[in-house]
Every structure is written in C-alpha cells, then in structure tokens.
Design a protein that fits this description.
By secondary structure, the protein is α+β, with helices and mostly antiparallel strands.
C-alpha cells in the first residue's frame, strides 16, 4: 500500500510539473545563462547565439550571410508569439533578423527587421512566396517589438518601435497547410525557393563581415500581466556607462594608404567631382546619440551641395577665415550603434583606393564640388560629434593636380574609358542636376560608356553628354529568383550545384523553356530603360551536367560515336580534352543566348563581357572557360585584372600597375591566337583589358583600353594612358 501511495504521489507530482511547464504565457527575458532548455540553437560555422549578461538579451553574433537563430516548438494551446529585436549592425538582405512561424520548408510567415529592406513580411504557401512591405523605417540600434497572432482563418502580424502601441502590418489568410502548431524561429536565416535546407538553415557563399543582432523578451501566449517584468528587462538593455567620443572617427575618400600621402586629398581643378566623408563609432559598448558631422571647408573647394543618402539634412553654416564651417545633422536625429563603421571594414585603418565607401547602415556623406587651382595647399577637416562630445578632427591638405589637357583623337578601335556603376548620386530632388554635371566631367575625361542598372536619371544624363549607357550587371541566375523562373524537373542539370538554380547548360545555351522566359523579361529592361547595350559580368561558367541532353550534344559536337558516358569525359577519361572544348563551347553559347535575347529587345545592340576565365595558368582545364568561344557572340570582350595598387609606390612593379595591364593584354592575345580560336575570330571587333577595378562588387569605376583585333587570328592589343 505504501509503495502504491508513493507511486500515486509521484504520478501526481509529475503531472503537476508537466502542467506547470505547459502553462502559458512562456516568458524569457534572457537574464541568466545558459539559454533555457526550450531553445534549440541553430547556428552555422562559428556563429554564436548566447545570453549577453551585460545587456540581459540574446546576442546573435557571426558572419553576415549565414544562418544564426534559436527555435522552439510552439506549445499546444498557444496562438501568439512576441519578441523584441534590435538590428545592431546586420546589413544583409535575405538574412536579416526575423520572427518566423515555420510549418515546413514551403509554408511559413516571416517578419524581417532589415536595415536594407526596412520592415517587411514574407510568407510562403506551398512554395508560393509573397512579400508585404511593413511601412516602417528600421534604424540601426533601435528596438522593435514584433508579434504574430494565429487565428482560425488568418495570421495577424503586428510591429512597432518598443514603447509605442503595436500596429497592424499584415493580415494573411491562413491556408490548410498552416494548420497545427508551427516552430518558432528567432534570428537570421534564409529559405531557398524549392531547394535548400529546411528550418531556414541556408548560407550564401559570400559571407565575410561579422555582425551582431540582439533579441529580448520572448513571450509565447498572452502578454497581459507581464508589463512590470518587461519594463524591468528593458532597463538592462542599455549598458551602464558613457559613450567615449574619442571613438568617433572620420575619414575622407578617395585617399591613399601610402604613409607619404595619406594626409593629402588629390583633386582636379575646374571639374565637378565628388568627395566622400566616412564615419565610424568604434566604442564597443555605447551608442553615439544625436550624431552629427562638422566640416571646415576652404572657399576654393567650390562646394555645390551636401547629401547623406536620401536623408533630409539640417545644415548650419558659419563663416571662418578662408572658408566656411558646416554642421550637418540628419533631421529627426540619428544614433550610431556600437562598433559601427562607415565602410565595411573590421579595422580602424583609413580606407584606401580599394575601399568603396558604402554601408547600408551608415551612408557616406557626399560633398559635390568644383575646386579651383587656388585650393592647392588649403586645409580641409572634419569630425563627428555626439551628445557625449566631439571626436578627433581629421585634417587633410588639398593638392590640386595639373589642369586636365584636351582629349586627343585616338584610333577608331580604341574603346576609350568605361565607368563602372554611375549610381553615385543619392535619390534626392537634386539628383538629375548632380548627375548631369558629373556626366559632363566624365565626358570631358573621355568616358564613352557607363555600366548602370538602368535607372532613368542615370541613363538620361549619360545620353545628354554622348555617353552610351549599358545595362549591367547580369546577376548570376541564382536560387533567389522568383518561383516562376525555377527550372522544371526536365530542365535541371544532373549535378548538385552550390550556387545558381542549376539549369542544364543546353537549356541555357538554347535559351528555351523557363530560362528563355527569364532572358526575355530581364533583357526587356534594356528597351524600358533606354540603355543601348548590354554588359555581362563574371560570366561563362556553366553548371556541371552529365544528363542525356548534354551527352547527345557532346556526341554531335565531337562526332564521337563510342562514348562511355560520363566516364570518358571525367578526370583521366579518354575524351577529357574534347569535353573541355565542349564545355567552352557551352560557355560561349551562354553568352550567345543572352545576346540574342538582348537584341530582340534592342536590335543590333553592342554586347560586352567581363570574363572571369582566361587561357593561362591552366584555367580552361579547371573552369572550362575560353575567351575565344564567348567572344564569338560579343563586340567587346574583356579580361579582368586588379591593376590599381594600394599606394603609388607599387604602380610600376610587375605584380601591379602596368605589369598587370600588360599581362591582361597578353591574356587576350594568347587566348585568341590559337588554331582553335581562329575559326571563330572573324566576328570579333574590339577587345579591352580593365585597368582599374576595386575589389568591392559595388565598385565605382573601371577603366578600359582596347585594340583592333578584327583579323582572323588577333595578334595583340594596345593600352592607352589615363
């Protein structure tokens, strides 16, 4: 009997504990270590999701384009979840911190707190995606309360800055595939359309910058009655202490990193140009509140206007000896979160030529000016200021270069200069005027074409000054494309692909099916934008494929009838060399499919390509890219070289500067001056090698040179000076 009673008491105790555990609401203020056992940490690589006891919040730290989140099943009986999210420094697009209700990889609701997209709702019903703008500007370092309420027929999404009443962001119809209790996911991740790992556990191959995101006060169930606990938790989010104003750093760009010249700003006289100011808050703990910038500029700088992205600025001007002092404050105020840099760098070093000054969190301050020779030797200086005090002054000396000489008439085959980018004026009311004056400068310097995304103000300004706008850049056909453009089962390549949607190369080369529709829609933007040509970037690597479609194409290409497929074309296979030639042909046909689509949109339009493969150092054998085959379908092929050094002392060495330019010219010559290439070279008119390209994909300008290679077997190329 005693044993029986003990068993009954044990059972009752177990049931009591179980009921207590299931009681709602579930509340987590992240004030103790370790994380509660309800949470499963799901982080890629060395990313971390852990309690920060100083802030008493969940801190997600790691690389930008990688998944990093915590998750827990929504308990039975719960129909609501709420969390506070602070996007401290994560500027990624698809991997922005989020609150997610997840049923399976094709059915979920996601509320993103994005510094790139602002607030937005993404939802998926049986793999059909929908995006709903949230209508709320997200600021770095601010906290936002995110909530989702499941109802019988809908899922209601609400959000607001912490301290304000929640407002409705979206009311989504709840389909049958959203039945049952979902998994709650909080943090960073991405779901591919139709492919990829479940639970938002997918990475992008380009992940380099380390970022931080904070989450706090998760409530599963009704939050009524938790107001006092939440208020106490909020008090701990701000670390005690004062911001250190000496950690506010600024830097001018362009500048160079050589010790002899890093305190000098080089400007050209009587040309409209842009000077950029970058800024950072290197305080590791404290935000810089009421952030603003102070400048002292000489009269000879010829300042025209100041912009900070699309923000409305309050600018105060005060005359000083020989110039004007300016204080620039974003209207409505701006805070600088801890450890935020105005350029995507982890160090405090002043950026040099290889650093393109853009950061979605903190946009660069642009000074548009037209300096005069009298500015030579003048001082320009700036500093950042916050409510905590002023940072150190950054002082530079202006050095005016010699007046730009008149352009010389060059040979017809000279391609001149190309500008890579062009979208360097913010979308403000004065943008058309700024772009018009910039294009006048570029035309004066000999720019013949500009590679642009096709924005109307850029295209209009370019054409007004005789510069040809080329639509760029061909975004690699990736798994981030809309579902309507994913390959059908009979269009996929046979081998798994880490990036790209994985079309069979023959489908790509023929421009048929789903891929053909994709080509038509994208190249139609040429006609819509008014661009006169098309520019390909990093092209020609085909997906690996050994399907029957590729087998038959290989047999037709080689006239080989006894192929043991695919063994004969793999490493050490007896037809390996023939297969490399076949792969190069497939890469060329890829350019051909795009050219044909582009010319359906704009007849006889010129086609350029910056080819990331070239026939030296065994590149063809490793990547199956042959410039000559791609060049069949192009008017101006290019091969890439990083030619502008970090400082002037490297300008003349073989590994940089002119040595690299010469290597690029030899690359084109060696690749095309072969018997295999001679057959296809008749249609080739012009070639160029890039003389300057910063390492960032958002690079501002690329300089090109060209040569006449219209003979059957091109024998060389020449390089013009700039």
């Amino acid at each position: 009997m005693r044993a029986f009673m003990c068993s009954i008491m044990g059972l009752c105790l177990a049931l009591t504990c179980a009921c207590a555990e299931a009681q709602l609401p579930v509340y987590d203020s992240f004030d103790t270590e370790p994380l509660h056992e309800r949470w499963t940490v799901d982080s890629a690589g060395d990313n971390t999701a852990s309690v920060d006891l100083k802030r008493q919040a969940l801190m997600l730290a790691g690389l930008d384009n990688q998944f990093n989140h915590v998750e827990t099943p929504m308990p039975e009986g719960a129909d609501r979840v709420q969390v506070d999210i602070c996007n401290i420094s994560d500027i990624t697009a698809s991997w922005s911190p989020s609150l997610i209700l997840y049923w399976d990889d094709g059915n979920w609701v996601r509320l993103m707190v994005s510094l790139m997209y602002d607030l937005r709702v993404l939802s998926s019903v049986d793999q059909e995606h929908e995006v709903t703008p949230g209508g709320l500007k997200i600021r770095a370092g601010d906290w936002y309360r995110c909530a989702m309420q499941m109802e019988a027929d809908t899922v209601r999404v609400t959000c607001a800055p912490v301290g304000e009443p929640l407002r409705e962001v979206a009311v989504l119809p709840r389909p049958e595939s959203w039945t049952g209790q979902p998994t709650i996911i909080i943090g960073k991740g991405y779901m591919h359309v139709g492919t990829g790992n479940p639970d938002f556990d997918n990475n992008y191959h380009k992940a380099a910058k380390r970022t931080r995101v904070a989450c706090d006060d998760v409530i599963i169930g009704d939050p009524t009655g938790l107001a006092d606990q939440i208020a106490a938790s909020i008090e701990h989010r701000e670390i005690a202490g004062q911001h250190d104003p000496t950690q506010l750093q600024v830097a001018f760009w362009p500048s160079i990193t050589h010790p002899d010249t890093q305190d000098t700003i080089w400007l050209a006289p009587d040309l409209y140009q842009r000077l950029t100011l970058l800024y950072s808050n290197f305080d590791s703990e404290q935000a810089a509140q009421d952030f603003r910038l102070q400048l002292e500029l000489p009269d000879g700088l010829g300042l025209d206007r100041i912009t900070l992205g699309a923000q409305t600025l309050e600018i105060t001007e005060t005359p000083i000896a020989g110039g004007t002092a300016y204080e620039i404050r974003p209207r409505g105020g701006m805070g600088m979160p801890p450890e935020i840099g105005g350029v995507d760098y982890e160090t405090k070093q002043q950026p040099g030529w290889f650093s393109w000054p853009r950061n979605t969190v903190m946009q660069d301050l642009a000074l548009f000016c037209e300096p005069v020779p009298a500015a030579d030797g003048a001082t320009i200086r700036a500093r950042a200021v916050a409510s905590s005090g002023a940072g150190p002054w950054r002082e530079m000396t202006i050095s005016m270069v010699a007046p730009v000489p008149e352009l010389l008439d060059g040979p017809d085959e000279d391609l001149g200069l190309s500008m890579w980018g062009g979208d360097i004026a913010a979308k403000v009311s004065a943008e058309p005027e700024i772009l018009d004056r910039l294009m006048a400068t570029w035309a004066r310097l000999g720019v013949n074409r500009i590679h642009t995304h096709g924005r109307e103000p850029v295209v209009t300004a370019a054409k007004a000054h005789g510069i040809d706008p080329f639509l760029y850049s061909w975004w690699h056909y990736s798994t981030q494309c809309p579902p309507a453009y994913l390959p059908a089962d009979d269009e996929k390549c046979s081998e798994p692909r880490r990036r790209g949607s994985g079309f069979c190369p023959q489908v790509i080369g023929e421009g048929i099916g789903t891929y053909g529709r994709f080509l038509d829609e994208v190249t139609a933007k040429m006609a819509e934008s008014g661009c006169v040509g098309f520019m390909l970037d990093y092209e020609c690597t085909m997906p690996m494929c050994f399907d029957d479609r590729c087998k038959q194409a290989f047999i037709e290409y080689t006239d080989l009838a006894d192929v043991n497929w695919p063994e004969d074309v793999q490493d050490e296979g007896r037809y390996r060399d023939q297969w490399i030639g076949f792969r190069s042909w497939q890469g060329g046909r890829y350019c051909g499919a795009i050219r044909d689509a582009a010319r359906r949109a704009v007849p006889d339009c010129p086609m350029q390509a910056w080819l990331a493969g070239y026939d030296y150092s065994n590149t063809i054998k490793s990547h199956q890219i042959d410039v000559s085959r791609a060049a069949e379908f192009l008017t101006e092929p290019e091969t890439p070289h990083y030619t502008l050094p970090a400082d002037y002392s490297d300008m003349w060495i073989d590994e940089a500067g002119l040595g690299s330019v010469e290597m690029g010219i030899k690359t084109v010559q060696d690749t095309l001056d072969t018997p295999a290439a001679a057959e296809h070279a008749g249609a080739i008119r012009k070639f160029s090698t890039r003389r300057y390209r910063p390492s960032s994909p958002r690079a501002p300008a690329g300089f090109h040179s060209g040569a006449d290679t219209s003979t059957a077997a091109p024998t060389g190329a020449t390089c013009t000076s700039s």
